[in-house]
Amino acid sequence: MILKFCEDNFLFYITHAKYFDILCLFVILFFIVLFFLVQKDEFLKKFKNNNFKQFLIILSLGLFTGFFVFLFVWLLNVNSYNGCTTKYYENKYYKAIKNVSMKTDLIEKTKIIVVGDSRMEFIDNDKEIIKPFNLDIVAKSGAALSWFETVGLPRTKKIIDKDEYDSYFVVVNMGVNDIQYTSKYVENANTYFEDYLELSKYSPKVKLYILSVNPIIEKRLNKAQPQNVRTNDKIKKFNDVLLKKLSKEEKMYYCDSNTKLSFDADDGLHYTQDTNKKIINYIINDCIQF
Fold first, then answer.
1. For the chain, which has fewer Cβ within 10 Å, the N-terminal or C-terminal residue?
2. CA 268 vs CA 68, 92, 272: distances in Å
3. Cα separation values, 251 from 130, 153, 209, 246, 248, Å
4. Greater confidence, 109 or 192?
5. What is the C-alpha separation between 65 and 59, in angstroms, rounded?
6. Rounded to an integer, what is the distance from CA 106 to the centroid of its chain?
């Protein structure tokens, strides 16, 4: 913990002086002991006057001043720029930098395509929601299976056909409208899966992620749309169909945002801006794997 403070503290970090962490430890431990002694009246009462207390104060000020003099001199010594951190933290630091650099390269060479209905369309249209530069949203209000097969799927393939990236991560989030439009939504879930499977094999560069159909707030939705027949039980059944079939595939992955996030929707169906931000964050940081 103390070594980590030595590295994180600005004055220690900027020096990068060899063995500087040892001095850091010494200074910190000294001040801890000094503070303890000064605060202990019982200890000081053993002395007949305050000369000892004054001595401790003068000693601490001297060490404090000496420390900054030492720091200034060391900063002027270019040859001592050998790194103050321990080998453990030094390796950890450079490993982190290397990982960030590698991930940045992967991100820049990857196109993320999110396909969905009005929920994703709302995210796409909200300019206050920050989205990655390499993310495209293909979405349509009211979209269901027929739209996906005739519009959404061809548009997604068209983006892939441009072949401008090394990888294409396709995130599909369809189904909430199918539950409303037809009692055969389970059959639609099976059809979606076959379409997803075909898309995952469309190009070796494609990785396909199925984002779970996320919940509704039933009381609000029933009030906003009296004709609503969607329920969270039906949504779970739809998701379960996809998840069960997915277990046998290698290039397709399931992202269970339904149970991992909390949701708020004023009308019971379309999420608030805060919830939409969480969904985008989940897709980028937890769902897809670079």
1. N
2. 61, 46, 10
3. 28, 17, 9, 10, 10
4. 192
5. 10
6. 16
Predicted pLDDT at 249? 73
Largest Cα–Cα distance in the chain?
A: 94
Was domain 109-287 assigned CATH 3.40.50.1110? yes
CA distance 5 to 89: 12
Q: Which H or E run contains 6?
A: helix 2-8
Our CA dihedral for 182, 186, 187, 191, rounded to 10 degrees, sits at 110
Delimit the domains of the chain by residue range: 2-99, 109-287
The average pLDDT across 80-100 equals: 42
The first and second tokens of residue 250, run together, are: 């290698």
Instruction: Fill in the DSSP letter of residue 73.
Output: H
| Whole-prediction pTM | 0.66
User: What distances in angstroms separate CA 262 from CA 139, 214, 283, one per listed residue?
Assistant: 22, 10, 14
- The DSSP code for 250 is S
Residue type, position 118, single letter:
S
- Count CA within 13 A, CB hemisphere, residue 15: 25
Bridge partners for 209 per DSSP: 171, 253
